[in-house]
Amino acid sequence: MQGFLFRPALMAAVLGACALEAGLQSRPAAAQRAEEAASAVILMYHRFGEEDVPSASIRLDQFEAHLEELKSGGYSVLPLARIVTALRNRQPLPERTVAITIDDAYRSVYEEAWPRLKAAGLPFTIFVSSDLLDARGTDYMGWTELRELARGGAAIGSQTASHPHLPDMPIDKARDDILYSVSRIEKEIGQKPAFFAYPYGEYSLAIRDAVAEAGFAAAFGQNSGVAHDRGDPYQMPRFPLNENYGGIDRFRLIASALPLPVEDLTPADPVLTGANPPAVGFTVLPGIGDIANLDCFASRQGRTNIERLPGGRIEIRLTEAFPAGRSRINCTMPAPDSRWRWFGLQFYVPAAR
Predict the structure, then answer these.
(1) What is the dihedral of CA 86, 293, 202, 248, to 10 degrees?
(2) Can you give the residue ranges of the NodB homology domain (predicted)?
(3) pTM (2 d.p.)
């Protein structure tokens, strides 16, 4: 791997991150070489400065360090709409393109994140569940605050009306929940939301299709990975950030990450209703380096056994079934200039009934 500077400490950091974090992009065109792909890192936050919920909140000093890093000149922080348009049209993007997204419209977004983002001059998208804004609970913003953010340049996306576990709902009820959120946001903000975020990052292929049919331009999960121009726009990855995973070293690592493009992913549906553990496999596109350096980590199982087959095929041999709820697999491999390629999967196992 010409140009790659091997650093044991960095290797340990990225492998550790994968092991702790442990998602779904679909078929790209194999004819295009991976290094020619346009790509972007999409960051995801929830709460800010709420230290009683460290799994969902980022410390303010961590968030300020992230903003300073993004303003350092090494990144291009762009509106999500510009990134999605470029990826869908296979247009070039600047090196180290980054988008900022925030889920759930917590009050700390308005009180803590919004002033800092405004002062930094950085664009962002906030995904909201309309029922939570209608209820005006003490933890959440109301429509008045959201309209202020929209007037200030924030893009508003949908995260359903009721923020349910979508795979657990009948598809017609899930579709109604999604469409109702569109109507409420359009009424309160004055325009339809262009983008959708799956609550908890959970979706099935049927949910994915319902979101596409609802007219959204793209939809986003909560699986770590880099969005690229051969991925499915309705299965776009994001890097979750919270207090536990908000250190500046990890932030620099993910903000400069590169895509690990794959095709022929199995199982195709991230909701596991059949074999568990699933037979996970994918084919890595040519042109990204030596896949002998690829490692994968699974939730609660650590580093997985990998079988490397001809033609760039990777088969992950899990030894344990995933429990009910969410589980992840993260795969990474080193790239030139001390950067890392990253591909993540999130699976959902319905509770037994």
Answers:
(1) -80
(2) 96-353
(3) 0.90
User: Residue for token digits 């007037």?
Assistant: 151
Helix, coil or strand: residue 133: helix
The answer to whether residue 3 is domain-embedded is: no
303 three-state secondary structure: strand
Residue-by-residue pLDDT tens, the chain, 353 positions:
333 333 344 444 454 555 555 533 333 333 344 445 699 999 999 999 999 999 999 999 999 999 999 999 899 999 999 999 999 999 999 999 999 999 999 999 999 999 999 999 999 999 999 999 999 888 999 999 999 999 999 999 999 999 999 999 999 999 999 999 999 999 999 999 999 999 999 999 999 999 999 999 999 999 999 999 999 999 999 999 999 999 999 999 999 999 999 999 999 999 999 999 999 999 999 988 899 999 999 999 999 999 999 999 999 999 999 999 999 999 999 999 999 999 999 999 998 76
C-alpha radius of gyration, the chain, whole number: 19
96: phi then psi, degrees, rounded to nearest 5: 55, 50
Angle at 337 between CA 332 and CA 343, to 5 degrees: 20
Q: Pairing relation of β-strands 313-317 and 280-284?
A: antiparallel
Domain limits at 173? 8-25+33-349
286 lies in a domain?
yes
The whole-angstrom separation of Cα 38 and Cα 33 is 11
Does the residue 1 lie in any domain? no
Residue 303 lies in a domain: yes
The single residue listed with the structure tokens 């959708």 is 196
DSSP symbol at 111: I
Residue in 286, 283, 227 with CA at minimum distance from that of residue 35: 286
155 φ/ψ sector (left φ>0, alpha ψ -120 to 50, else beta)? beta
β pairing state of 258-259 and 339-349: parallel
**CATH assignment at residue 65:** 3.20.20.370
H/E stretch holding 209: helix 205-213
